[in-house]
Amino acid sequence: MAVKKNTLKLKFDSSRNLAPALESKSVAKIAERYDLFINGKFEKPSSKKYFDTINPASEEKLSSIAQANAADVNKAVVAARNAYEKGWKKTSPKERAKYIYRIARIIQERARELAVIETLDGGKPIRESRDFDVPTAANHFFYYAGWADKLEYAFPNRNPKPLGVAGQIIPWNFPLLMAAWKIAPALATGNTVVLKPAETTSLTALKLAEIIQEADLPPGVVNIITGAGATGAALVNHPDINKIAFTGSTDVGKLIQKAIAGTNKKATLELGGKAANIIFDDAPLDQAVEGIINGIFFNQGHVCCAGSRLFVQESVYKIVLQKLKDRMETLIVGDPMDKNTDIGAINSKQQLEVINKYLKIGQQEGAEMFQSACSIPKKGFYCRPTIFTNVAQSNRIAQEEIFGPVLSIQTFRTEDEVIEKANNTPFGLSAGVWTDKGSKIFNMTSKLKAGVIWANTYNKFDPTSPFGGFKESGFGREGGLHGLGAYLKV
Amino acid sequence: MNTIPDFTISPRIDQVGVEERASRFTKRSIKNETKINGLKLALNMIDLTTLEGKDTDGKVKQLCYKAMHLHDVYAGLPTVAAICVYPSMVGVAKKALGDSGIKVASVATAFPSGQSTRDIKIRDTKFAISQGADEIDMVISRGKFHQGEYNFVFDEIAAIKEACGNARLKVILETGELGTYDKVRKASDIAMYAGADFIKTSTGKISPAATMPVTLVMLEAIRDFYYKTGKKIAMKPAGGISKAKLALHYLVMLNEVLGEGWMNNEWFRFGASSLANDILMQLMKQRTGLYQSGDYFSND
Amino acid sequence: MSTKRLTVLKTYKIYIGGQFPRTESGRYYTATNAKGEHLANMCLCSRKDVRDAIGTARGAFGGWSARSAFNRGQILYRIAEMLEGRKAQFIEELMLQGSNKAAAENEVTLSIDRLIYYSGWCDKYQQIFSSVNPVASSHFNFSALEPMGVVTIVAPQQYSLIGLVSLMSPVIAGGNTCVILASEVKPLCSVTFAEVLNSSDLPGGVVNILTGKVSELLPHLSSHMDVNAVCYSETNATAIKMVKENASLNVKRTAIYENEKWMDEKNQSPYYINDFQEVKTTWHPIENIGGAKAGY
Questions:
Q1: What residues make up the domain containing C52?
Q2: Cβ contact (<8 Å) for B260 and A457?
Q3: Quick check: B16 and C289 CB within 8 A?
Q4: CB-CB: which of A253, A456, A481 is closest to C285?
Q5: ipTM beyond 0.90?
Q6: What does each C-alpha distance from A25 to A29, A339, C164 come to in angstroms?
Q7: Where residue C173 sits, what CATH number does that domain have?
Q8: DSSP letter at A420?
Q9: Phi-psi category of C263—alpha, beta or left, where left has phi over 0 and alpha has psi -120 to 50?
Q10: Within 10 Å of residue A31's Cβ, how many Cβ atoms?
Q11: Shortest Cα distance from A12 to chain B (angstroms)?
């Protein structure tokens, strides 16, 4: 027969573009200016400085955000310390729980508003902020609320005690959800909090401050201060902090670990990753392709546990690649506020530049680049879904975290070979394995050096499920029972 | 020649994954002209079906009239794709439809159970063809399939295909009796390699009938077959699709799994009886802005 | 002609990969008792010995961590048995290093008991610290412990036997391998303990014991990029700061025990094992076909 194998391509005609289905912005009440949330009130920054936060999808300014300096950080820490000593640590656990439940409930009530603001400020598709970020954030508060009066069952005979004031620094990829991951366990264990959101995505954290006010949480128990790296550094270095919880890059994580070396501050670090996603020839291939897509294109690839290194067994490499490319053509890239958008805007101009730099590096290194043919908006920061084939383990695109919708693909022949390649990285946050054979799954999941392993699935999260890395991906766990220990003396 | 795969091993399907993927299609928001075009297309893909013991000439004639006159209610509407009846009603339907262009599909092969001899199944098929059927909807022998007699199932489909002559053959897997997605996939592969023009989910007599995940598994089988052989196979989910919104979800799925080449009634059908009316109601709602009542749409 | 028999003195060497080499540096220092009297010449290890020991520990990690928990428990028990058999020698060495007889006896018996204690934990701590997590989707999700890898340990200067045993046992019970820098001031029984290890079915390289100066070797023990965790147990703010700073080079885990009293049974618990464990969470879909639900 004349038909050559594996050359056929399906046609995904752009004439069938879906009509716009825009989420309404009217529910999003964004003030012109936001101050610092200290001691239960919004206060002007002593720096008197504000910075702009923009919508990365349109590059339009959304609001002005206060820039906290060292004096503001101090004010927030003092407020948190007072709240801890004078009230919160003496508040009965079951009452503490009820405050946290309240927060969870209000997040649910204001879900739509939060989703819209999350998407406007951060660029992620409204479908994701609506169906994932906001509900999961609420669920985290629900989950940890219940722990507040049950801690002695988590650590039998240890009489667990709170640490004191927790300084928390979160990234821009899941702004509200990361705030929930940090605040919920800290409060449940009886600590007070000073939280700093990332400078490009402060809005939902400030909305959370409003919710915290609405929940009548005692002043100072949660303080939210905004600013860039210098603000974070001031928080890390403040002498009256007992605990640092940081999610962000490995570089900054190392700086923090070093900075607090001479102190008794405890730390939890959730750092970078370069996860292997491994497809065996006996995998459920169509679901595996979905896993690849979800692994690297979820949230524009701005995910520390993204499956950014794909390993495909050679015997199914061609068919997997063919399916993957066809699937990529169906991804809709564009306005994050459109309910049909699969891949929204890159979070910032700076991040887009980083991603573009790696696209160049990949090509210079001799890897073959493929991007889907979709159109992307003229204004705003966008990147087409991208895969690189013909990648070597030594290529930078196979080693360094890109934090964008960019996948590097390698092949392998045997289990031993892929285990070695997968573990051959300083990172160890997550990994994926696809095979129908149970005993192989357990071999793989026990040998892969990573804190979270998805077998026949990828990028799943749950409040009950501990999350965190091996090696340079950080230490400590967030979520589940194991997430409590990070905020307690046991 | 294509090599026929070893049907004892088929690609694996992960149930949770396939259901998650299927539910993703339902998250697409279909609005305005996309919705109107989609509804019209769905209407045009319907195999308007009556498969009851109590079917009469009169009932079949009424159905045929309706199939030809949808545009009476709403100008500019296409017709449905086909009328689907038992072999004994093929002659009546053929006559009633005249030169409308609407095809007549006939179930055959001891529908719906398929529990008969091959000889009878072939004669059943040939009778329907002789009455003028354009398409034959056969059922596979699920009992033999569950016994692992894949060659028997394969040969039977090939034999019916031969009996069909120029008529297109739809092979009903009766997915509700197969139990797992893995078996749906295997049965799809057997049917396609044996010569099916369509693969079809269900008879409509067994619950569950068509579901989105089952249809997705079959669409992916069609895609793999196309990748391997370059040959297109058509798809027909049947039973349980009675709402316009659900039909639109199916079309989104079709569009994103197989693409533009399958987005017409040569390559995709809905086996349905009450879907047409719901589509009409939705179209009317789009036009008038008013939610509709069933009282204004004839039930045939 | 004198008939007085000359005592054969013991050469104290280091322990790497199940062998007893001398330091590659060829240097030595003198171990003395409290009065400053010469006890023995000890290897003054160099950074290269540290490097070699860490490489050896890394090589032994795969095999040791893959041993069944039951087998690790048996080996720890065997170490205790061997120590019991050589009790007298340890008491003697501890006394040479300044302990009185009662204290020395107490330290040795406690060390034996501590080994037994952790031997028992080898196949139990996992059940204490693991969890099955009730996620809200159709997935089976569980968190289980895994050893961190290679751990460097600076043994306490006082209580040189019980301190070493208290730090080593939870580390290897949990499937890690380690490099231990013995007490600088009381090194004798550390090397003798290596002989116990070597006759206890413990695979070579799982525990490696060096002697030398903390000030010289601590920077290397804490900065080596192939070390996963570092354990330090003195109250020395400068040293602790250095350990933690060096740890940041590759995000090492640090376990600093400043207030532990190793002679106290309060300072033995599975939490010391947990300090050198990673939590790994695994997800897998759960098939749930149609109506196939349990009906009872």
A1: 28-285
A2: no
A3: no
A4: A456
A5: yes
A6: 9, 12, 64
A7: 3.40.605.10
A8: H
A9: alpha
A10: 13
A11: 5
Number of structural domains found in chain C: 1
What residues of B act catalytically?
Answer: 137, 200, 236
**Chains touching B (3+ CB pairs < 8 Å):** A, C
For the stretch A349-376, pLDDT in tens is 999 999 999 999 999 999 999 999 988 9
Residue C23 lies in a domain: no
| Domain boundaries defined on chain A | 33-271+471-489, 273-455
Distance between CA atoms of A221 and A195, rounded to whole angstroms? 11
Class of domain A273-455: alpha beta
Residues of B in contact with C137 (CB under 8 A): 16
- Chain A residues with beta carbon closer than 8 angstroms to that of C135: 460, 462, 464-465
Q: Rounded to a whole number, what is the distance in Å from the CA of B38 to chain A's nearest CA?
A: 10
Taking Cα atoms as reference points, which of A120, A114, A155, A119 lies closest to residue A135? A114
Q: Best interface-test mutation with B: which of A131, A281, A286 has the largest number of B CBs within 10 A?
A: A286
Strand pairing class (A60-66; A474-475) = unpaired
User: Residues with Cβ < 8 Å from A193, sequence gap 6 or more?
Assistant: A80, A165, A166, A168, A182, A183, A186, A187, A221, A222, A223
Q: Is some CB atom of chain B closer than 8 A to the CB atom of C139?
A: yes
- Whether pLDDT at A119 is above 70: yes
Alpha helices by DSSP H, B28-141: 32-44, 57-68, 70-73, 90-97, 118-130
Question: Does position A100 have pLDDT exceeding 70, yes or no?
Answer: yes
In the annotation, is A314 catalytic? no
Which residues of B are less than 8 Å from A18 in CB distance?
28-31, 34
Residue C9 DSSP label:
P
- Per the CB < 8 A criterion, the answer to whether A223 and A80 are in contact is yes
Question: Is the CB of A453 inside 8 Å of chain C's CB atoms?
Answer: yes
Task: For tokens 């650590």, name the residue.
Answer: A155
Please list the ranges in chain B whose pLDDT falls under 50: 1
- pLDDT-derived band at C289, boundaries 50, 70, 90: low
Average of per-residue pLDDT values in chain C: 95
Best interface-test mutation with B: which of C135, C140, C287 has the largest number of B CBs within 10 A? C287
A304 is catalytic: yes
- pLDDT category, A2, cuts 50, 70, 90? very low
CA distance A372 to A361: 19
Q: Are B104 and B83 in contact (CB under 8 A)?
A: yes
Residues 6+ apart with CB under 8 A from C168: C153, C178, C180, C207
CB–CB contact B208 C288 (8 Å): no
Q: Is A139 on the interface with C (CB under 8 A)?
A: yes
Pick one of 3.20.20.70, 3.40.50.11270, 3.30.70.1400, 1.20.1300.10 as the CATH number of B29-287: 3.20.20.70
Strand A36-38 with A41-43, pairing: antiparallel
Q: Average pLDDT, stretch C200-218? A: 97
Tokens at B5, concatenated: 């795969």
Q: Which of A324, A293, A15, A125 lies closest to B27, judged by CA?
A: A125
Residues of C in contact with B14 (CB under 8 A): 285, 287
Q: Give the domain A33-271+471-489 fold.
A: Aldehyde Dehydrogenase; Chain A, domain 1 (3.40.605)
Find chains touching chain A: ≥3 CB pairs under 8 Å.
Answer: B, C
- pLDDT (mean) for A19-48: 94
Q: Which of C243, C249, C282 is facing A453, going by the closest CB pair?
A: C282
Q: Where are the domains of chain B?
A: 29-287
